[in-house]
Amino acid sequence: MEAFEILTPLSIILCILGVFVGIIFGAIPGMTATMAIAIFLPITYALDLIDSLGLLLGLYVGGISGGLVPAILMNIPGTPSSICTTFDGYPMTQKGQGERALKVGITASLIGGAFSLAILYFFAPVLASVAIDFSSVEKFLIILFALTVIASLSSGSLLGGIFSGFLGVFISLVGFFADNNQLRLVPSFLENQLYYGFALLPVLIGLFAITQILQEAEKGMKTASHQKFEFDKKEKFSFKVFKGQWINTFRSSAIGTFVGILPGVGGSAASILAYSQTKNFSKNPDRLGKGEPEGVIASEASNNGLTGGALIPLLSLGIPGDSTTAVLVGAFLLQGIQVGPLFITQNPDLWSGIVWALVIANIVMFLLMFLAIKYMAKIVFVPKQIIYPIIIVMCVVGAYAINNGVLFDVWTLVLFGLAGFVFAKIGIQVAPLLIGFILGKDLEKYFIDSLKGSGGDLTIFFTKGPIAIVLWVLIFASIIFSLYQSWKSKKTGNDIRNAA
Amino acid sequence: MKELLTIDIKYDEYHIIFPRIIMGILILLVVLMLIKALIKRLKDGSLTQFKFKFFEENFDKLKLFGTIGLIVVYVFFLEIIGFIASSIVFMFLLTILLKGNFQRKTIVISVINSVTTSILVWFFFGYLFDITLP
Known about the structure:
Chain A has 500 residues and is mainly alpha-helical. Helices cover 71% and strands 1% of the residues of chain A. Chain A has a two-stranded antiparallel sheet. Chain A is globular and about 70 Å long.
């Protein structure tokens, strides 16, 4: 089989391990898939790229899927993307159908994951081949488009989202500029430490792991009380549940995948959109929210549909589809590989390795959770007070090791951990900020390169060609869409973005 | 019109063109957000009220500031007393802080957690994987 020619035995083992650990991270409320990947990145220093991708993709799939366990059993979403799973999953548990709900969710997750993987497999190379001929003008506009989409679709206000994105760009500009080797935005006493700007990895780990721990500490870190789950007294799970639900399953998978393709939009938006669509099309909309498998299917198919979707812009354009894939950018950079339009054609083995690793991760996720769900369910009680100190030490080790022992990188970690905590309070959104930070240097490079070509003439961005015009239309469409959404929400009072 | 839309780009200024533009955009956005907030307050008649609260209601001061303090002290001592020693002390104190009591069980758990984790991390990362540790 092709899979075993490309994937090493180690990468398969790591992938399985990754899924297992990912499920644990997803299942413990307050720990997310993004956090799992951020913490495990440092371990990948010692691994080959394909092995590390096996581990990280396993963590990704496991982390997104594990969130359904506490969502269904305790009415607490384990990850933001399983919010909608609580709507019908928990009522099912209350009716004594906990195991049935979990198995419905797990099966829907598998279908969603497989669907999005197929789309990724066929669509990413096509998108990449279109993008290969892009000049710096189009590349600049693509990033600008990514930033406006993130800002307009993420939760909170449009202005705040755009501000967050540009703030991320601004932070990324700290350090030297490659074209003329000049430093900027660096205080003179930190010239040595900040010559290359803030290292990506400590920033990521700080924003996603340290910030989360501080937020939990603020809330007093209460443990979930032990409750006994009533597993299936009345109705056993059977795949017949899906009879009559195929349209719902595939619509939700497709919504998840599509939302995943849009840069910067997280799983919560995907599952809320899928859930509301299911409600619109359902034969019995009144019963949704009271313990219908239909709702669990919608939420879980869509949030796993996100996994493949979010990888599409990453692997074809170099633009991360959500904050979790943004962390994956760090993994590629560690190995010295540039993700972008040339990635798939230049690294065909790696590309099929990624696809196979995702196939394996989805199957392992399904088997692990389906067969061992009763034991997996106990994970939600692992005390955070013991895990968080371990996580902080792992973060510090990771940050310290990134440049072979630079203490300043550890300070960067602490700084961005604190910054993330403050940002959340004052309405600066982390997803646009992070994507701005990751793409900021490229944005600048393409901007300067475009102007060099035109002799400083700004109209080049409008007159370059048809693709540039299409991109401008898309940029304005995303802003108008956002304004329309907020206008509509003011009128009706309910808004997808607010719920996300 | 043409001149308005042309930027003067000189080689020795390449590095500050873009930061200036981004800075300008950020300032513009702040101004816009302020104006928006001001209009909203004028409409609601709540111009002088200030309701923003930074921390959550009844937030856990000890755990929050204790965690921040411990992290900062930990990083400060990392290169001075070495990875294993500083990690053991840090994890021991943090586990007790987050558990929030001094019962025998808590102390035993903290000791086991901090010593095993620190030594395992050192063994796997520093020894097996040859990753640089403080």
